[in-house]
Amino acid sequence: MPLLSWRAVAPRRSGEHHSGPHRADAFPGIPVDTGTGKPIAYVPGQRAARTEYAKRDDVPGNNSVIRGMASSVHARVNRIGQAQDWLGRWQDRIQGRPARPIRALDGFTGETLAQWALTNVLYARKRPAPSFGFGLAPVLTHSVAARRQRRLRGTLLLATLVYLGGSHPSGMAAILAAVLLCQFFAGRVCRTILRWGSNGLVPALLLAAALFALWSFAKPHLPILREAVLEGLLVAPRLLIAVTALHLLDRWACHAYVQSLRPGRHIARRPFLAPFAAKRIAAHEVTEQWQSIAYRKEGQVDRFVGAGLDSWPKGATRIQLTSARTSENEEDDLPLAAEDMPDLDANQKFEADELLVKVRDELKRLRGTLVETHALPNCDVAEFLGIPEGRWKSLGQSSGTGGAKSEWPEATEMCTEARGAPTGHFSRRYLAAQVVAWDGQVVVTVFAHAALEGNTLHFVTRPHVLAPLLPSANVTPARGWDLARRLAETPLHACGDTVALASRAYTTIGRGLGLLTAVTTAAVAVREKDDGRPVSLREHCGRETTEDMHHTEDVQRYVSILQSRMFSTVRAFLADHGLATAEFTRQTIAITQNYIEGDNNQVNTGNMGGGMQQGPPPAGPANRTEKAG
Predict the structure, then answer these.
(1) 457, 529 contact by CB (below 8 A)
(2) Compositional bias (Basic and acidic residues) at which positions (predicted)?
């Protein structure tokens, strides 16, 4: 049956409160927002203006994605595995095989991930991208904890060096001198001098004279040097034991953090004794509920940042609105001439916003129990305001204090952008249907937009897929004997950390001012990252596409269900208004006929007009799966 016009309205006195059978939604002619139950404002002589929009469901606060990402910031290098790789390289050299790589942490785990999250999300001068399928607060809280642990470890190491240097200055000086001598004799300068001294008699005599002069200068100080060397031999074991103990405590603290994220345990949403960081995280919790989403072009495809790296080609339909013809004329494929098209009457005219509301109501039916089938898992239907990427850095942020400051700044823009013609508006309203499956590892979102201009309906769908996390960014807490084995191996890993630290210190001393240069370069890189462009922590840690067979099948099914329901609702809406649907049906059939071809899971998606677009998903960000290996 036809959808009732929004212009039908029942009078209501100012200040009157409706309840029970006299509520606003009891009158079939009053447009009511299904999410809030509030009536939509009506101005006599003008189009109906919406004052409410479909809000998002609460951000999931307890799933495997949150626990895996929060645990990954506490990951440490497997030193036992590194030792095995070094031994394996020796075997590879003997047997003539290619040298195997030495395992290490990549940029999507450990303290590197924590620093990226703090720089690009928590302390960035921009609004965070919407988080789909997980909440930002726990991950940011553990990132703050990981940064605090790194700073505490560095402070204790520096304090240890200062204490031993103050109590045993000669011993620390002897250790430093030994390191410098090793650097000199193993360096290029020493080899060059020896090569020069062996070239002829005169260079050899000059080199011998220089060595004799050094011996003459050091001979009177031999007792002092001997005492310094003996003291250095006593200080070196103490220094190694202290550094190893610090690394052992550091790894045990990491185990404690990871165990606090076991399933069934409460996840901390605020860092301890960090009021400024807690305030920023509270502001981000508010901001991630706001429904502005930025879009950018990657390759040949436009993508909404945060909705998923796997952005499918859009499904676009464009039809001229005409009255439905008789059954004889409907079977005839010959189009009517422009002068033969009858004008639409008042009952056939509608607004694009009215169409999207109808689609939204139909999609919400997928959340409940369906007849002889199952409901879509965690299906959320909300509205988003698509905003250009260049405008993202100018958007306001929440202060985290609640009250009026926590209201969404673009709420009014959301309610007005879909009323008139879309031409000239960069920000446009989209209806988003989202399915969260596999405990948050797979998120499918289909965005839909309807534009009605020039008596032509343009209906576009844009599917996006969030693939599972990278293995390195999805750390699972150990249990039972596995946990006991890891705790028992922790001292060996701590010894490996000490050896790795000594190697880095040896290399740094050899480079001289290389440490200062590295710190300066890192600071510049951090400043360059925060350029105001929207970034997504979930996309940063996730794969580009699904690789598991069942994940891929579920993704294709969810996209097919959501798009088919959207198109069928639009078709029924047009039919209820007495409009022709044959051309729309032909275009939607071409879009919804997706199939899989070959071993590379190539998705073939029809586009507007029935043409088929064959090939792999369009080029986007490179798949980081191999990088994480």
Answers:
(1) no
(2) 13-25
Most confident of the ranges 20-29, 337-346, 447-456: 447-456
State which amino acid sits at residue 360: R
Residue pair 500/79 in contact by the 8 Å Cβ criterion = yes
Residue pLDDT, tens place only, 534-544:
999 999 999 99
* Residue found by looking up tokens 């150990």 in the block: 478
Please name the residues in contact with 199: beta carbons below 8 A apart, sequence gap of 6 or more. none
What is the DSSP pairing of strand 379-388 with strand 292-298? Answer: parallel
Q: pLDDT digits over 234-275, tens only?
A: 888 888 999 999 999 999 999 999 999 998 888 888 998 889
Decide: helix, strand or coil at residue 369: coil
**Whole-prediction pTM:** 0.78
Distance CA 585, CA 591 (A): 10
Place of tokens 């084995």: 485
Instruction: Report d(CA 447, CA 466) in Å as an integer.
Output: 14
Residue the block writes with tokens 């990491």? 254
Residue 208's pLDDT is what?
76
Measured distance CA(235)–CA(74) in Å, rounded: 31
C-alpha separations of 289 from 33, 268, 276, 413, 447 in Å: 19, 19, 21, 16, 17
